[in-house]
Design brief:
transmembrane; Chr_Tranpt_l_chain; transmembrane helix; globular; Chromate transporter; cell membrane; 79% helix
Amino acid sequence: MNVGRYLEILAVSFRLGLTSFGGPVAHLGYFQDEYVKRRKWLDDRTYADLIALCQFLPGPASSQVGISIGMVRGGVLGGLLAWIGFTLPSVVALIVFALYVQQVDTGGSVWIEGLKLVAVAVVAHAILNMGKKLTPDRPKIAIAVIAAIAVLFYQTAFAQIAVIVLAGIVGYLSFKHSDLPEGADIQLNLRKSFGIISLILFFGLLIFLPVMSGFFSNIYVQLVDIFYRIGSIVFGGGHVVLPLLEREVVPPGLISEEVFLAGYGAAQAVPGPLFTFSSFIGTSIEGISGGLVAVLAMFFPSFLLLIGVLPFWNTIRKKKSIRAALLGVNAAVVGILIAALYDPIWTSAVDQTKDFAVVLASFAFLYFWKVPAWLIVIFTVLFNVLLSGLL
């Protein structure tokens, strides 16, 4: 065992976890600079292919790219260390924040209101950026609009999953004759037999955990079921987690909508992947142990999928039907975000002129002046406090 190599993977990924602000696209830029340009662990072509793979899979795309690079460098253990390093800083920060929120009265708090307003600006920004890339033409815009309308009227996790599946079918039927480039092969040493076992475990847990949750009234079983299931089906990156998680934890009363949105706003101020928002929710429900269970369950599907799909990816990605279906799924993701922007985000955060003014200013700095998200969080909270004191 090359201990030095594994320590290097952990140290480099931990430093990235401390400094990678700005969301998934920014993370990919940090990875390219560190792993490709500086350390030359892989070349630009292989890096681009890993990004293509992780866009194909459900889950947190930027985190999966980091895990994949760790696997290229040091096998499965290397992937695990890369994930630990990249996610640990934000997990610790959000667990601490959740513990603080539990000790204070959040009702009517001006700074909590500011964090809720952050979510409005950030999700609106994400919709515009993703929409430009994922819905560039009228057919994909139509898929997004129909998906948004469906989710607005049928606000359940099952409805959102059904929308994603139907969008994939529509994408296949609509774009299967389009010109879709294949890309290059990826060189990784993972056995196909190991991949098959991993995929069997992935689908087995997806079926078995809801059954277990129904039979056992245990909060930890329930947390594993919720976060594993969401981590298994979410396409489009961290912001898409918001509506799925909200439907799972707010209506059943596991946490309040106010605390949920405050945590989501705080998640914008920390580096690393947005999927670590799961640690805030788990901690808010069941303390530190709940936070750790939630974040492990949220990311575990990504490991199983990467180990399972990597050995077969070079063959799968050449299938035009898969690439066509994914175009429809990605368009539906934009629609789901649009629905989430209205409910629960807008309806819970904006109820007076002052709130809209704060959101407008925050969005302008975020979108037009390209101010980092963590600075937007600070600005929004302080601006909301200032306006609340003046008006």
